[in-house]
Design goal:
signal, Lipoprotein, globular, mainly beta, 128 residues
Length: 128
């Protein structure tokens, strides 16, 4: 099995675990804070990275999930800081994006080992 297929399987399993959670939040799923990265430490910048958009039921937000090059069992999870076009606000749409990851200020209960949560400010996004 190719590494890229293993990454896709891992990412799909990650989403399925998030979908099964029943915790509720009162904020709107598409509501994003435009300044959520203010004052946060920049972790890394990425350019033209493959990933996918998925709705996280724990946080009631859309997030971007992407694999980490050279590591088939880890992924970065970007909690969106800025609005992305409505055409990308749908589950499991494959994308290519550029942006900046920042430290996430709160503790997150990791349901899947290997997931790294960050705030993510998107600079560009397009369909894969």
């Amino acid at each position: 099995m190719k590494v890229s297929n293993m990454i896709k399987i891992f990412l799909l399993l990650s989403i399925s675990l998030f979908v099964t959670n029943c915790e509720t939040n009162t904020s709107s799923p598409t509501e994003q804070e435009s300044t959520c990265s203010d004052g946060m430490k920049e972790v890394k910048r990425v350019s033209e990275i493959e990933g996918f958009v998925a709705f996280n039921t724990d946080m009631n937000k859309y997030m971007i999930y992407s694999g980490i090059d050279g590591d088939y069992d880890s992924q970065d999870v970007g909690i969106l800081c800025n609005n992305i076009p409505d055409e990308f606000i749908q589950d499991e749409i494959e994308i290519i994006f550029s942006g900046t990851y920042y430290t996430y200020p709160n503790e997150i209960e990791k349901r899947i080992p290997g997931q790294n949560y960050f705030l993510l400010e998107i600079n560009s996004i397009k369909k894969k």
